[in-house]
Design a protein that fits this description.
The protein has 9 helices and no strands. It is mainly α. Helix 1 packs antiparallel against helix 5 and helix 4 runs antiparallel to helix 5. The chain is flat.
Length: 259
């Protein structure tokens, strides 16, 4: 178990998230169960007020989560000096079986909260708020994912052992090991670059055509391909070393924090 000022800060912010998100979740349940836009009773007006309060809380959580995610990566990078074998955040992530799922869950939650805010903005354009129930059903799902993320983060830090040797990023992102990562990094650069620029061109096209649904799907695909291309291709030129694929080292001072 590790305790540093950065980890304690993450715990404090997570506790605040749980408190505020639970308030919004309770209100969301009431809105989903009882709100009826066709009624003009006092209860409906109270539910509308609760929806504004909950929306403010959800926006607050998202706007704090974005810089907090960067702070989380910074914390992992600092912890690399405490774990034998770790050279950067990659070694810290691989120190337990919870690191990689937590990282993906954090990214997923950021996208879900961002989508919620976009849906809320669309809903607020109309006086009768046609997506009121739908957006709070979505938040109910996001709430449980947020709680899962917070619990998983606590378990990860609690499971870390400062006396155990962990893999360095060179071993984790090696192209010669028999792992799924080696298979991904071994993909032909021509294929990766074709997908990278091809999907980007399609994103621009469907943005101009104002097709939001296809544009949203392409955004998700582009994120995945961009990360793979960064690790497999672009990163090696930044490092000026064809065998170095770690994305976390891009955040270090040795490379002018280019990441």
């Amino acid at each position: 178990m590790l305790f540093t000022p950065e980890i304690i800060t993450l715990y404090i912010v997570n506790i605040l998230f749980v408190v505020f998100a639970t308030i919004a979740f309770i209100n969301a349940l009431k809105i989903v169960r009882h709100y009826d836009a066709n009624k003009t009773t006092q209860k409906q007006y109270e539910l509308e007020k609760k929806s504004y309060l909950s929306a403010t809380i959800i926006k607050f959580i998202f706007y704090v989560k974005v810089p907090l995610f960067l702070f989380f990566i910074y914390t992992l990078d600092n912890l690399s000096s405490l774990l034998p074998g770790a050279m950067c955040a990659a070694g810290v992530v691989s120190a337990t079986s919870y690191g990689t799922p937590l990282l993906f869950l954090k990214i997923l939650n950021l996208y879900i909260f961002a989508f919620w805010i976009a849906l809320n903005d669309e809903d607020m354009k109309y006086e009768h708020q046609p997506y009121l129930k739908q957006k709070f059903v979505l938040f109910c799902v996001a709430y449980f994912l947020l709680i899962a993320e917070i619990v998983l983060e606590g378990v990860m830090f609690f499971s870390m052992d400062a006396s155990s040797v962990v893999d360095c990023c060179g071993a984790i992102f090696s192209t010669t090991s028999a792992t799924y990562m080696a298979e991904i990094l071994g993909a032909a650069p021509s294929l990766l670059l074709s997908l990278f620029y091809g999907i980007f061109a399609l994103m621009v096209l469907f943005y101009m055509l104002k097709n939001r649904y296809i544009y949203a799907v392409l955004n998700i695909l582009y994120l995945i391909i961009a990360l793979i291309t960064l690790i497999s291709f672009f990163g090696t030129y930044i490092y000026e070393l064809p065998t170095h694929h770690c994305p976390f080292c891009l955040l270090q001072s040795d490379y002018n924090y280019i990441g």
